[in-house]
Design a protein that fits this description.
Blueprint (H helix, E strand, L loop, with lengths): L10 H11 L4 E2 L7 E2 L4 H8 L5 E10 L2 E6 L16 E4 L16 H10 L6 E12 L7 H13 L10 H6 L3 H16 L1
Parallel strand pairs: 3-6
Antiparallel strand pairs: 1-5, 2-6, 3-4, 3-5
């Protein structure tokens, strides 16, 4: 075990440092505030003994001790968004050709997941029981993160077909959002 505490230039810089130091066969990236469910490691090891490329794990979305939902995403989900790195235990060999792209400050895990897993012939195991509690409230839900996700989707030829949600409608009621909505309505009336 190695412990390093030093400055870094962001989340993905720190994750890349950890990847370079890793000596095992598999990686699992957890952030501060994320933690394993009790008694899951034995089951995880049993599934990893089957030598999958990826072990997909269900994660709990933990909002200050309240589990809001549980999900398990697979590579087919990548056209819509990230698989959530807390739910991925994957072979370290995926980093033989590339690390996390540090130009992205908020969504490099999504970029990595597309490069490594999308439309690839990979062996997948799944653990449907909750494995990790993912603490809600990090930088992943920011508007900067959403901009990076859109950029990554466009770079990979994924059309953004996101449905209108109440959360997106509420964004219109910010000063910038109201101007954007009025512009949209004016443009729609001209057609």
């Amino acid at each position: 075990t190695k412990w390093i505490s030093e400055p870094d230039s962001g989340i993905y810089n720190a994750m890349n440092k950890g990847i370079k130091l890793a000596t095992g066969e598999y990686l699992h990236m957890l952030n501060s505030g994320d933690f394993y469910e009790p008694n899951v490691l034995e089951d995880i090891l049993e599934k990893l003994n089957k030598k999958p490329d990826i072990l997909l794990c269900a994660i709990n979305h933990n909002n200050n001790g309240i589990i809001e939902n549980t999900e398990l995403r697979d590579p087919y989900f990548l056209k819509r968004g990230s698989m959530s790195h807390q739910g991925l235990i994957y072979s370290i060999r995926f980093h033989d050709d590339f690390l996390y792209d540090e130009k992205y400050r908020f969504a490099s895990d999504y970029d990595f997941e597309i490069k490594a897993f999308y439309n690839k012939d990979i062996k997948i195991e799944k653990r449907f029981l909750p494995t990790v509690n993912f603490l809600i409230g990090g930088i992943g839900g920011s508007s900067d993160s959403e901009r990076e996700i859109i950029e990554i989707k466009e770079k990979n030829g994924f059309r953004n077909k996101d449905k209108l949600t109440p959360k997106k409608i509420l964004k219109w009621f910010t000063p910038f959002g109201i101007l954007e909505l009025l512009s949209f309505i004016r443009h729609a009336k001209r057609k």
